[in-house]
Design a protein that fits this description.
Elements (H helix, E strand, L loop, with lengths): L2 H10 L42 H14 L8 H37 L5 H32 L2 H25 L16
Length: 193
């Protein structure tokens, strides 16, 4: 298999190594919100420092991976065209939503810094930012469902098989990183003081 094909397949399952941990069934469960970077007032850090990972990021990985590995998954020209349209729509929505959320977070920070700000105004602005995140997450969930619906049962099974294989490899690497061998034994040498 060509390098590009492997890269595409790896992109499909990158979410296996992500903090939100997706189920092998590629369902909507397990998505998470990214945490902000730096110090700040909200989950997203100060002045809109947004760690925008989450379901929309994993859906983007899925779409890119499928498109990069279209031959390996046996995608038709029509499927490719529709997947590209889904990817473009998701990217546009994500870019706009992230900008809107960052603006809202800056507004929240300014309100918090102003001791004269009413708590109700702060609460309203926080709710506004949260609703923008909800809308983005729902857009990603719909895009994921739409993408999977475009695939044949055989293609979905292949995506699931690749995902499960990568999940297993990820778990094994994680265990090795913690000094564990299969069976739960540590391979680190014990030293006596």
């Amino acid at each position: 298999m060509r390098l590009r094909s492997w890269i595409g397949i790896a992109a499909i399952v990158m979410m296996a190594a992500s903090p939100m941990g997706f189920s092998p069934a590629w369902a909507e469960e397990g998505y998470g919100k990214g945490e902000g970077h730096g110090k700040g007032y909200g989950r997203h850090g100060s002045y809109g420092g947004h760690g925008m990972s989450g379901h929309h990021a994993s859906t983007g990985h899925l779409l890119r991976g499928l498109l990069m590995s279209q031959k390996e998954f046996g995608l038709t020209d029509e499927q490719v065209s529709k997947l590209k349209a889904l990817q473009l729509d998701l990217d546009k929505t994500r870019i706009k939503a992230e900008a809107d959320i960052m603006v809202a977070e800056r507004d929240i920070a300014a309100l918090i810094e102003d001791e004269k700000s009413e708590l109700s105004a702060i609460e309203e602005k926080i709710k506004q930012a949260e609703m923008q995140e909800v809308e983005l997450r729902m857009t990603a969930i719909k895009a994921r469902r739409d993408a999977m619906a475009l695939l044949t049962p055989e293609q979905r099974a292949r995506v699931k098989a690749v995902h499960e294989k990568m999940m297993q490899q990820y778990k094994e690497r994680k265990m090795e990183g913690h000094g564990m061998k299969k069976g739960g034994r540590s391979d680190k040498k014990e030293t006596t003081p």
